[in-house]
């Protein structure tokens, strides 16, 4: 992603560069930093060259309190032995050859990528041969790392891919040139330099948007906020409204999991697995709520995979995260996955030109005669068509909602409904007539004190089709923390237990059978709670 000294081509890409040109570039920029041995003397073992950016990062860390306090991207395991501009020029060379061999893009995507891999191997081999003339040859591992970086720059996350490939990564937050990496099971790591300039970071964002098929989404002064998904499914949100250009990448570590995996991860216990699966088959309308990062999408995805294959499903998302239209661990329903579209930055008729919101998609989605509708996340006025779809025959529909505390669920729903123009009383009646079950996920992050991140169901509520005192919907707490256990434990029998038993997946006596409903050992928190 580094800036180059040469003029870009007409399409904005760097000009192609041959192996000899690249070898010369390397000889001038990297070879001069190596100590020169006397004639006839044995060549010393020379480590992979460090880029100027990495040297600055190490120097800065030393000044601020010790070398290595804030590592640079070049200092991570698997660091490249060459400057990133070499990767960009090799990418340009391979892209030119790829376009020549498949100019009309008639190849299937898998075949085109296989062709690209072959061209990358050949280009890197030619370059490495030219580079070795007058320089210490790269090892096979280093040459392979260069090839991987070239392919990643074409089809994956480019310079940031090495961060995304680390085990346990959940979020990568880029603030200007510095990145903060959040992990599932260890404290945050800060990387000093992931780009050479702010312009380079913006270029990366727009290239990722194009690779993801979101050509209408670009980070510019006209559209200073943009969101899209990367080719691997990671969700990207970028902005120019912050002090420095900023990017947040939400990594989806698991896409094909089912509800059984949630038991293994400790998000639910065997009783909740049976109960929630029965609720899906009994066509209960389910609302999954929790704080940011609590695992709402993971649970919703797992519940969606329990929908019988005989049904028809429509999913509505701002950015695809559910992937229920992709093959899963078992056959699923016929699924149509709708995705919102951002505007192109222009305005037309008082609105944003080209923009299609989740609310806009509802009318079309319902004409697909779907038996269920799933909304990835309700954030705004789409709450009204979602609840109306649930109450008007969309039994078994589901969605997620961001709520900080369990007791704030109804208030949050009412707030969104009133923002959409409804009266509070009408909102209460709509909520009562549409939602059957609310599942609350708790997020407990102990990585800062030597622990790990815990995500688990702590509360489940039944919403009755009546309003009580104050006109609010009547709710019953079915599962809640009890007796020192902070995770969900059975508390009250649901009024729809007969419907659950008809599915053949649930029996009412299981709810009161404590051994069956117990969690698999105590929660491994740092401080016993």
Instruction: Tell me about the largest β-sheet.
Output: 9 strands, mixed
**What's the gyration radius in Å?**
27 Å
CATH H level, superfamily name of the largest domain: P-loop containing nucleotide triphosphate hydrolases
Mean pLDDT over the full residue set:
81
Low-confidence blocks of residues: 1-70
Give the class from helix and strand content and strand pairing: alpha/beta
Strand order of the largest sheet: 9-8-12-13-7-14-15-16-17
Descriptive overview:
- The chain has 529 residues and is an alpha/beta fold.
- It folds into three domains: 1-32 and 46-155, no CATH class; 162-253, 2-Layer Sandwich (Beta-Lactamase); 259-514, 3-Layer(aba) Sandwich (Rossmann fold), CATH 3.40.50.300.
- Helix content is 35%, strand content 20%.
- It is built from 17 helices and 17 strands.
- The strands form three sheets. A nine-stranded mixed sheet has the order 9-8-12-13-7-14-15-16-17, sandwiched between helices. Strands 3-2-1-6-5-4 form a six-stranded antiparallel sheet, with helices on one face. It has a two-stranded antiparallel ribbon with strand order 10-11.
- The radius of gyration is 27 Å and the shape is elongated.
Primary descriptors:
alpha/beta, Beta-Lactamase, Rossmann fold, 3 domains, 9-stranded mixed beta sheet
What's a quick, concise take on this entry?
The chain is 35% helix and 20% strand. The chain starts with 18 loop residues before the first helix and ends in a 12-residue tail after the last helix. α3 crosses α4 and α4 packs across α5 (140-155).
């Amino acid at each position: 992603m580094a800036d180059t000294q040469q003029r870009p081509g007409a399409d904005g890409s760097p000009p192609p560069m041959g192996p000899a040109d690249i070898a010369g570039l390397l000889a001038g920029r990297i070879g001069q930093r190596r100590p020169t041995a006397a004639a006839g003397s044995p060549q010393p073992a020379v480590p992979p060259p460090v880029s100027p950016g990495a040297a600055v990062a190490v120097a800065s860390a030393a000044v601020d309190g010790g070398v290595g306090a804030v590592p640079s991207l070049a200092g991570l395991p698997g660091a490249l032995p060459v400057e990133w501009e070499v990767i960009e020029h090799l990418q340009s060379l391979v892209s030119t050859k790829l376009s020549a061999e498949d100019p009309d893009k008639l190849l299937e995507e898998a075949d085109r990528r296989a062709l690209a891999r072959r061209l990358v191997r050949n280009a890197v081999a030619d370059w490495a041969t030219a580079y070795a003339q007058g320089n210490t040859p790269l090892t096979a591992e280093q040459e392979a790392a260069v090839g991987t970086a070239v392919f990643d720059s074409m089809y994956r996350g480019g310079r940031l891919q090495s961060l995304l490939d680390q085990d346990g990564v959940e979020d990568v937050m880029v603030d200007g040139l510095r990145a903060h990496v959040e992990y599932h099971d260890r404290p945050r790591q800060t990387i000093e330099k992931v780009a050479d300039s702010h312009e380079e970071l913006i270029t990366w964002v727009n290239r990722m948007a194009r690779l993801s098929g979101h050509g209408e989404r670009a980070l510019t002064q006209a559209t200073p906020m943009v969101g899209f998904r990367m080719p691997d499914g990671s969700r990207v949100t970028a902005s120019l409204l912050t002090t420095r250009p900023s990017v947040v990448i939400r990594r989806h570590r698991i896409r094909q999991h089912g509800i059984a995996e949630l038991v293994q991860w400790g998000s639910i216990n065997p009783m909740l697995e049976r109960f929630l699966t029965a609720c899906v088959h009994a066509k209960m309308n389910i609302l999954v709520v929790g704080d940011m990062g609590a695992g709402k999408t993971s649970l919703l995805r797992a519940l969606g995979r329990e929908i019988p294959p005989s049904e028809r499903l429509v999913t509505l998302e701002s950015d695809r995260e559910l992937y229920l239209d992709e093959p899963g661990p078992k056959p699923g329903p016929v699924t149509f996955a709708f995705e919102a579209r951002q505007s192109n930055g222009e305005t037309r008729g008082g609105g944003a030109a080209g923009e299609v919101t989740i609310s806009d998609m509802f009318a079309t989605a319902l004409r697909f005669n779907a038996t269920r509708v799933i909304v990835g996340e309700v954030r705004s006025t789409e709450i009204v068509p979602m609840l109306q779809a649930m109450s008007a025959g969309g039994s078994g529909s589901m969605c997620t909602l961001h709520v900080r505390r369990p007791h704030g669920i109804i208030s949050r729903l009412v707030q969104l409904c009133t923002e959409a123009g409804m009266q509070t009383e009408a909102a209460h009646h709509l909520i009562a007539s549409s939602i059957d079950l609310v599942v609350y996920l708790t997020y407990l992050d102990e990585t800062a004190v030597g622990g790990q991140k815990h995500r688990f169901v702590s509360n489940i509520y039944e919403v009755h089709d009546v309003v009580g005192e104050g006109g609010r919907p009547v709710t019953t707490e079915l599962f809640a923390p009890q007796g020192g256990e902070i995770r969900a434990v059975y508390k009250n029998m649901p009024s729809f237990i007969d419907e659950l038993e008809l599915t053949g997946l649930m029996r009412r006596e299981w709810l009161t059978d404590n051994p069956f409903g117990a969690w698999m050992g105590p929660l491994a928190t740092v401080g016993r709670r």
